Amino acid sequence: KNEVEQSPQNLTAQEGEFITINCSYSVGISALHWLQQHPGGGIVSLFMLSSGKKKHGRLIATINIQEKHSSLHITASHPRDSAVYICAVDTSGSRLTFGEGTQLTVNP
Amino acid sequence: DAGVTQSPTHLIKTRGQQVTLRCSPKSGHDTVSWYQQALGQGPQFIFQYYEEEERQRGNFPDRFSGHQFPNYSSELNVNALLLGDSALYLCASSRDRGGPDTQYFGPGTRLTVL
Fold it and tell me: Using alpha carbons only, what angle is made at residue A26 by residues B97 and A2, rounded to the nearest 5 degrees?
């Protein structure tokens, strides 16, 4: 069993829909990161969470430390949101363990 | 302010050869981590450099080695290349502040081993 599990693996939505991507982890962490990867490989950091909830534009990330679970929400999704979204946990001194990623496709 | 840069962008090698990949961290960052991402998978941690020393290492063989220079830039060396080493190699930089920090990723080097 992977230390970081994401669901779903693939997600197709219509423009404007509310999207949720889930992440569960089984190890102790100092922080959880949500990342976005576009075709070609570049990775952009979206959020770093240690507790609670963060919001940036249409993106919202939450974490429940007791349940070892985090969610990434996208409100009013847009085709430009299409990308791979990756959950990663910081287990020790900026060493990240990644989930497999969720491929999101938003159709117009 | 330049972000994290990596070179080269793409590289093609044959089995048994050696390769060196380079990474320049974001200005003000002193910690460099290297990751290997096989096609369709999440990145895997290779190792991390801080103060010119390897501070942490993932489950990779000794064929993978690295270096960090006084200006915080870093190299990843892979010897005796195998077909399975074909992957996207990502470098990430951060600041050592005694706790978790946002990591900034470079564009990656795509290595193909034939």
Answer: 105
The C-alpha of B104 sits at a distance from chain A's nearest C-alpha, in angstroms, of 7
Place of tokens 């197709």: A12
Cβ distance of B48 and A95 shorter than 8 Å: yes
Residue range A40-92, pLDDT digits in tens: 778 999 999 999 999 999 999 999 999 999 999 999 999 999 999 999 999 87
The whole-angstrom separation of Cα A105 and Cα B85 is 29
Contact residues, chain A, for B92 at CB < 8 Å: 43, 96
Inter-residue contact B108 to B90 (CB < 8 Å): yes
Does position A1 have pLDDT exceeding 80, yes or no? no
Say yes or no: B60 contacts chain A, CB-CB below 8 A. Answer: no
CA B92 to chain centre: 7
β-pairing, A19-25 vs A4-7, is antiparallel
pLDDT digits (tens, 9 = 90+) for B89-109: 999 999 988 788 889 999 999
The predicted-structure confidence for B7-61, as pLDDT tens digits, reads as follows 999 999 999 999 999 999 999 999 999 999 998 889 999 999 999 999 999 999 9
Of A29, A24, A31, A37, the C-alpha closest to A81 is A37
